[in-house]
Structure formats: structure tokens, C-alpha cells
């Protein structure tokens, strides 16, 4: 199997796991504070990956430690915005499609950060995606829900994180890189929880089950696969493979919560998908 094919497999599996992670997280935050859940989820995943690291990985990690910590900070900021949006949204599927716009924000972030000009196809895809976003979110005129704004902000930050991480994913092995990134997010969330949240006296066993599933499957395994895939392909290619995530999330939310979208929202989702697929088709042509 070629490196490109291995990257594709890793990233498709990443999208499947990520879609399940939306459900895991929504169930977990229903029974415990948001920041406490995020902190526990990411610290458990970080420690798990750290145990699996090889001793020889440490020198490379230390060599690039400033960049690794910065990438962890971007991931933490992204996840803080995302988890609050998940906790208050009425539609996980809608949120997933808004987040999928990060794949179109990646070329803009790469332009500013890596001095890589967007392909011509990007400028055709972007207006189509914006029209889709409008149909998906603006149901009552020019008004946005708080969860929609949080998802949009998270999408922008995710694009920055994606580009920044792609720059170093080829230099640092995936396991230690993922471990440090997740650890940064977990520590930031725990500190916030200590100062702004109050814990319930008891958390039932089912909630702890969702926390563990989120930590080991939707975080540890997911981020290791994502970084492994990113290390074998370009940032743009990796980002666009992950357009499958909102589709899988809509299916998962429909099965688990019975979520449905209006005709206008469905058209908006189709426009966003069309923009993303067109862009990928043109850059790979």
C-alpha cells in the first residue's frame, strides 16, 4: 500500500471516529461540567499516548518543543470553542457542517501562515460554501444563534491549528506530538474548570463510560490517526478528505437523537459539500 493510500485510510477512519465523538461528548456533558469533561477526556488520552511513545521519540519532541506547545495551544482553543457549542446546540448535524468549513479555511490559513497561495478553484468554491452556510444557519433573517457563532469560530481556529500542525507533523513522530497537544488542551480545561465550574456530588457510571469512550476512542485513537495521516500527505489533501465527517455526524445524530433538517438546511448542506468536493476534485486533477 502506498503512503498516499495509507494516509487516506487513516484520515477516513479519523472522520468516522470523529463523528462518533460528537455523540460521546454530547452524552458526557449532559451529566458533568463542560470544562471538567474536556479536561479529563484530553488528559486521559494524553497519558495513554505518552505511555505508548518510544524512548527515542523524546529528543525530537524536545528539539521542537516551542512549536509543539504552540500547536497544542491552538488545539486547546479550538476544542474549548467546540465543546461549548456542542453543549448548547440544538442540532449536532448543523454544527458538523459549519465545522466542515474549516476545510475551506485551511487554504486561507496556509496563505497567511505558510505563504502558499490558494488554488484558483478555491475562489470558486468559497462563495458557494458561504451561500450554503447562509441557508444552513440564517433561518430567521440576519440572526445567528450563539452555538452557530461558536462553531464558526472553532472552524476558523481549527484551520489555523491544521496548518500549523502540518508544518511539524513530518518532523515529530505522531504519538508524542498528539500526546503533548492533548495534554495542553486537558490542562487548560481543568484549570478553567477549577475556577469557573462546580462539580456535582455524584456522576453516574454511564457518564463515566462516555468520558472513557471520548478519551480513548474519540480523542487518543482519533488524533493519532489524524497526525499519522497528515504526516504522509499535504495539508490541503488531508483537510479535504475529512469532509466526510459532517455526513457521518448527521447520520449518527439522526440515528441516536432523531435529528432532522429542514429543506432549506439540506440545500445549504449540499452547497457546502458541493463546494468542498469541487475544490478537492480541481486541486487533484
From TrEMBL:
Q: Where in the cell does this protein reside?
A: Cell membrane
Q: Does the keyword Heme apply?
A: no
**What InterPro entries does this protein map onto?**
Diverse_Substrate_Transporter (IPR051258), EamA_dom (IPR000620), EmrE-like (IPR037185)
Any one cellular component term from GO for this entry? plasma membrane
- According to the lineage, what is the superkingdom? Bacteria
Ranges where the EamA domain occurs: 7-137, 149-277
Which regions span the lipid bilayer? 7-24, 30-52, 64-84, 96-114, 121-140, 146-164, 176-195, 207-225, 237-257, 263-281
Annotated keywords = Cell membrane, Membrane, Transmembrane, Transmembrane helix
Predominant localisation class: membrane
Signal sequence extent: none
Q: What membrane topology is annotated for this entry?
A: Multi-pass membrane protein
Q: What is this protein called?
A: DMT family transporter
- Organism expressing this protein natively: Affinibrenneria salicis
Amino acid at each position: 500500500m502506498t503512503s498516499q493510500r495509507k494516509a487516506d485510510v487513516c484520515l477516513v477512519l479519523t472522520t468516522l471516529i470523529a463523528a462518533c465523538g460528537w455523540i460521546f461528548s454530547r452524552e458526557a456533558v449532559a451529566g458533568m461540567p463542560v470544562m471538567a469533561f474536556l479536561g479529563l477526556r484530553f488528559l486521559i488520552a494524553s497519558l495513554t499516548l505518552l505511555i505508548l511513545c518510544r524512548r527515542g521519540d523524546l529528543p525530537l519532541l524536545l528539539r521542537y518543543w516551542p512549536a509543539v506547545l504552540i500547536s497544542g495551544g491552538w488545539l486547546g482553543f479550538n476544542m474549548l470553542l467546540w465543546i461549548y457549542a456542542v453543549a448548547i446546540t440544538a442540532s449536532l448535524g448543523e454544527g458538523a457542517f459549519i465545522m466542515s468549513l474549516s476545510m475551506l479555511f485551511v487554504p486561507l490559513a496556509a496563505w497567511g501562515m505558510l505563504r502558499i497561495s490558494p488554488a484558483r478553484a478555491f475562489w470558486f468554491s468559497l462563495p458557494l460554501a458561504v451561500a450554503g452556510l447562509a441557508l444552513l444557519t440564517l433561518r430567521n433573517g440576519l440572526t445567528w444563534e450563539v452555538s452557530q457563532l461558536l462553531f464558526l469560530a472553532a472552524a476558523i481556529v481549527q484551520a489555523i491549528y491544521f496548518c500549523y500542525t502540518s508544518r511539524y507533523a513530518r518532523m515529530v513522530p505522531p504519538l508524542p506530538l498528539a500526546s503533548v497537544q492533548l495534554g495542553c488542551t486537558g490542562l487548560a480545561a481543568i484549570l478553567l474548570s477549577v475556577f469557573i465550574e462546580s462539580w456535582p456530588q455524584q456522576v453516574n457510571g454511564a457518564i463515566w463510560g462516555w468520558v472513557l469512550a471520548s478519551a480513548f476512542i474519540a480523542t487518543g485513537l482519533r488524533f493519532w490517526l489524524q497526525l499519522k495521516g497528515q504526516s504522509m500527505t499535504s495539508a490541503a489533501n488531508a483537510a479535504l478528505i475529512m469532509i466526510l465527517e459532517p455526513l457521518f455526524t448527521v447520520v449518527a445524530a439522526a440515528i441516536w437523537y432523531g435529528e432532522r433538517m429542514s429543506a432549506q438546511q439540506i440545500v445549504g448542506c449540499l452547497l457546502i459539500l458541493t463546494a468542498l468536493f469541487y475544490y478537492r476534485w480541481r486541486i487533484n486533477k
